[in-house]
Amino acid sequence: MILLDGKKTSNEIKEEIAKKVVELKSQGKKAPHLAAVIVGENGASLTYVNAKVKACEKVGFDSTLVSLPIDVSEADLLSKIDELNNDDNIDGFIVQLPLPDHIDEHKVTLAVNPMKDVDGFHPENLGRMMLGLPCFLPATPAGILELLDRYDIETSGKSCVVIGRSHIVGSPMSVLMARNTKVGNCTVTLTHSRTQNLEQITREADIIIVALGKAEFLTADMVKEGVVIVDVGITRVADDSKKSGFKLLGDVKFEEVAAKSSYITPVPGGVGPMTIASLMLNTLQAIDMK
Ligand code: NAP
Description:
Elements: E1 2-3, H1 6-26, E2 33-39, H2 43-59, E3 62-68, H3 74-86, E4 92-95, H4 105-111, H5 123-131, H6 139-150, E5 159-163, H7 170-178, E6 187-191, H8 198-203, E7 207-210, E8 227-231, E9 235-238, E10 246-249, H9 254-258, E11 261-264, H10 271-289
Parallel strand pairs: 1-11, 2-3, 2-4, 5-6, 5-7, 7-8, 8-11
Antiparallel strand pairs: 9-10
Helix pairs in contact: 1-10, 2-10, 6-10
This protein binds NADP nicotinamide-adenine-dinucleotide phosphate.
NADP nicotinamide-adenine-dinucleotide phosphate (NAP) is lined by residues 140, 163-166, 168-170, 191-195, 198, 211-214, 232-235, 271-272, 275.
């Protein structure tokens, strides 16, 4: 079994990006600037946003964190987005999800200028992805492609099962794995909560991408020997032995599934850091798109 080490790979990518930033600056250009908007103080969201801001500092990007109170009105949030859309200094920005219930997430996604949408959630970017046109790919699926690519995992002609059909992970992932690209050309099955006989489907799979948000859902009896496993799930589970009071679990029962896998991502240290790396890559791309 080989660990698909997202932490190590993302550090390599960050070093490559840092070199490009030095190059840009030596040509008299400015460093890429990523802004992140966070509404409220949800613990997990704060952790993710802080990790993104820290990653910006590490590669030499400029970064701006916009923290808005939990009771910010939808109109005020949209007006902040408008400001970021029109700020020439900002190359790309993200609005950390989830948002409080009184804010319509679709309205917010649509309000982001597609040219600055480095999370790749805007319908224009998703549509361009479907057509294979230049666009920002959604950060988590893009990070997974990059990881599979850098580990030289053969995907062509393989059967790939994606568990979960969210707009930000499962659905775009299924499209990307089926594309006629180096990492792609899979025969893809997209599964969800209404899928029947899921174990039968996963047992046939060469590659399984698990993104349903249920801790340790995928067990050894659901996979075949030699399978490639990508675990997207992150669930916080109480753990008194940790300083934070919780530990992170993926959607895969790691030890037993790892024993049957050829490659597997850990949680933490797998897909999470790759998502951040692809956000950085998208921000760098935003400069070229300008
Ligand atoms: P989501 O919006 O919560 O959707 C979950 C999906 O799983 C839905 O499509 C649902 O089906 C499906 N599902 C639920 N129970 C199922 C079952 N028993 N069998 C098969 N499918 C089932 O998911 P998400 O936003 O993609 O997040 C998934 C997980 O990934 C979460 O743990 C999240 O924290 C994590 N995540 C991690 C990263 C990262 O960077 N590592 C990024 C994003 C998300 P229905 O559509 O039928 O309801």
